[in-house]
Amino acid sequence: MVDYSKWDKLQISDEEDAKPSPSRPPAPVQPKAPAIPKRRLHPSDYHPERSLNKELFEPLNCRRWVRPELLDVISKWQSAKNTGDENAFKSVDLDGFEGFQVEAPGIFSFPALTDEFCELLLKEVQHYRQSGLPSRAPNSMNNYGLVLNEIGLRPAFSAVLKEVLLPIGARLSGNDEDRITAFKGEAVETELWMIIIPSLFSTAQLMTSTWTCTLMNAT
């Protein structure tokens, strides 16, 4: 049996009692890394991470969104262009373009975009509004529009302008050798007019499948 009473008789000298207990050196203080300012979100952050209908953003799909009437009227131009024909624009026959109309001097309308494209684009705009990303008004008179080029659609729209609308613009307001002077026997008189790229491809507020081109007097 262990006798614990002897533990009461242990003596500790004053010197031993006065010795401080060994302690570990303080850990070095690590300097705090400077705070990195949080980058503000931009409309360009939308695609491809947050976009809804990613096929809209693909330039190779541009012909998919164009009405058959318009594709038909530019088909000869595309064939002539591929062979290097310098007069390729003249192959675009606006008289045979079903749905092409002169609404007023310098204002023309024609079927351009499919209903599928219009519906998908409107859904894309609504989806962007719900994403919380910032948007700016296209101009001072359009507070509810959206600059579609800024959310990633510029390459797709540029493809449509280059591959589809270029020959139409050339026939309406191009060089003298390319521009038409009459439509179905009626004088067009666009010699002193320059074409304005429609706002349909830069903003989204009201979307229809009919395209309206406006010409502005350059004098």
Gist?
This protein is 26% helix and 11% strand.
Describe the protein in words:
The protein is an alpha+beta fold. It has a domain at 43-83 and 110-217. It contains four helices and six strands. The chain has a four-stranded antiparallel β-sheet with strand order 1-2-6-5, covered by helices on one side. A two-stranded antiparallel sheet has the order 3-4. α2 crosses α4 (154-173). The longest helix is centred in the last third of the chain and has 20 residues, at 154-173.
Fraction of residues in helix = 25-40%
Low-confidence stretches: 196-219
Strand line-up across the major sheet: 1-2-6-5
Helical stretch tally: 4
Biggest sheet: strands, sense, closure?
A: 4 strands, antiparallel
Shape by Cα distribution: elongated
Task: Please compute the radius of gyration using only Cα atoms.
Answer: 36 Å
What is the averaged pLDDT score?
79
Total DSSP E strands: 6
- Class based on secondary structure composition and strand pairing: alpha+beta
Give helix and strand order, one letter per element, not per position.
HHEEHHEEEE
Distance between the termini: 121 Å
Q: How much of the polypeptide forms β-strand, as a percent range?
A: 5-15%
What are the SSEs and their pairings?
Elements: H1 14-18, H2 68-82, E1 101-104, E2 107-111, H3 115-131, H4 154-173, E3 182-183, E4 186-187, E5 193-196, E6 210-217
Antiparallel strand pairs: 1-2, 2-6, 3-4, 5-6
Helix pairs in contact: 2-4
